[in-house]
Prior knowledge:
The structure holds 3 protein chains of 3 kinds.
Chain A: H1 3-11, E1 17-20, H2 23-26, E2 30-33, H3 39-48, E3 51-61, E4 66-75, E5 81-89, E6 94-96, H4 105-116, E7 119-121
Parallel strand pairs in A: 2-5, 6-7
Antiparallel strand pairs in A: 1-2, 3-4, 4-5
Chain B: H1 3-6, E1 13-17, E2 29-35, E3 38-45, H2 53-59, H3 62-69, H4 77-92, H5 98-126, H6 131-151, E4 160-161, E5 164-165, H7 171-196, H8 199-205, H9 213-219, H10 224-227, H11 235-238, H12 259-283, E6 303-311, E7 314-322, E8 328-334, H13 336-342, H14 344-347, H15 353-362, H16 367-371
Antiparallel strand pairs in B: 1-2, 2-3, 4-5, 6-7, 7-8
Chain C: H1 14-26, H2 38-47, E1 70-74, H3 82-91, E2 97-101, H4 103-107, E3 131-133, H5 140-155
Parallel strand pairs in C: 1-2, 2-3
Helix pairs in contact in C: 1-5, 2-5
Amino acid sequence: MTLAELTTRLQTLQGSTVTATDHSKQGVNLDITIASNVIPELARLMSEAKFALEAITGVDWLAEQQIEIVYDFTSYTSGIRVAARTRVSRETPEVATISDVHPGANWHERESHDFFGITFTGHPGLIPLLLPEDADFHPLRKDYGA
Amino acid sequence: MSIEAKSIHRETFVINLGPQHPATHGVLRIKLTMDGEYIDDAEPIIGYGHRMQEKMGENRTYAKFLPNTARMDYVAALFNSQGYVGAVERLAGITVPERAEYIRVITAELNRVASHLLWAGAFLIDLGGFTPLLYTFDDREQILDLLESVTGARLTFCYYRFGGVCNDIDDEFVAGTRQFISRLRSRMPMYHALITKNIIFRKRCEGIGPITADVCRRYGGTGPVLRGAGVAYDVRKAEPYSVYPQFDFNVPVYPEGDCMARYRVRMDEIVESLRIIEQALDKLPAGPVMAEKVPRFLKPPKGECTFTVESARGSFGVRAISDGTDKAYRMKLRSPCFSNLSLFQECSRGMLLADALALLGSLDLVIPDIDR
Amino acid sequence: MDEQTQVPPGLIHFSVLDEVLDLARANSLWPMTFGLACCAIEMMATGAARFDMARFGCEVFRPSPRQCDLMIVCGTINKKMAPAVATLYDQMPEPKWVIAMGNCAISGGPFVFPGQYAVVEGADKLFPVDVYIPGCPPRPEALLEGILELEKKLTGKRRWPVAPPQLRETP
């Protein structure tokens, strides 16, 4: 799938803003901002386009009281990199899991849950991955330990 | 569990592999549900080597975090430095002099060879053969001598700086590297006679632990694991960074997807890396090794970027977010081993325990890289 | 030992037997195959061809703690791993010794900062440590030196005299 085809398909997603970015400056080819409820649909689309999930990154925007979740997708055939981002409220960070489509997301989501306390609804087992089994803190939140 | 599963013929039991076990390469723990000698389910439990790297990326200045990157994937430390330094340079808009990029390629590829040699030795130990380790470590020590002469460290190199490298290479290093290249080339047939043609090794690897290209895609597996599954994906070719486009090298691909394919990919990569190093030494331009006017206290402008390098184990990615201060707002480190291990649970199902350990070894895991 | 502190020889010379035992122990330390992080690679290098730990009789790496008398804590102990490390120490039969290899095993090393949440700040928080080897990671020579130091602790005398460090001339 070419970059143009992918852009058109991603633009069909509800409420998405697709920006073509300069790979030499940003490291990604496409940057998509999307509402959190469209994430499963996006994941399915990316899976159909034979993209692999590279990573899930949480970012705690303390000033805006929001948590951003960035999904990095990459294609092994075309080398295209896509970053999809969504924001959820910091009080109740909730987004649907994509581990049913991308099984690799299972661990990435558990890691994000560890670090930021993001709840991935529908996840098969959202238990601590990197932190001890009984951990109840989210160390990468900006107010942790403050 | 189904009704059959509860019957006496399918009685399963749970055993723990690790966190201290010689076959788990450090502190990996695998909860195995066994049906006799066959694996019903193997759930990796990680986090025993978690060292807060991402947190420290946020509460240390950019320069102070630099030594930490060498302590994630310490077997191939220079790639992590390269990824991190590359991301920060991209954020701050620093251009690296060409000579420095060449030196980065030479040292990084030497590190790749050292990493693959160490893997070959350790993998053979997993399979029950101790002797190859002594040979591979012998060659690896030669590389460490070379790298030590320019970086000052044997293992946790902190050699790259924002805008270049901290120390120029000299004629002695160049001569030594050329000597090493011819030495290792002459020893490759010995390795193939010692390992590749060994019948026990072949029986333990051929057809064992197949990983398909689709499994790699669904789990995000990269590196030799992916290339051993027949996909010619290499970040150095797909998204060329540094000066890699100037070199002629192949991406070894084996379609079988078994342990042997992954072994062959790595052995071929050693040869390809030697080719890259040789070309880089031939073309090595003169000039400075540090960019001018790199501020002492780096404050990249507000922004976000990623930088991905082809580490010895797969794509190592850094997503850096700057808020304009001297510390990163977010420093996400995407380690290749993390994704490569996550496919183990699916792939090991139904395997013999001894074969699963061969599969585990062939993934080339570095646990503190997974746990960060 | 000067003459005043020397215990007069008794009828039964257990002390000689002890000395022989100590000598035997010192020259056949069995370390555990137990790697935590970066330092484990240097421990492997120490066991491999160039540095050859076998020269000092301690190359018999045993995967089971029940067969070991030396634990080389090589790497960061984090809070999730700490109970397992403590269990391993408890499982080793007496007499047993511990070498803390590297800064992480000494104090937590570079991973300690105010408010850190994951790292145990030193192996000696969990069990007694006999020899500390600084470095990040220590060179294989340093690990060998640490083993010689442990031998000295066991036998009361050093295997051979300390050589003054020979510094390489920097260009």
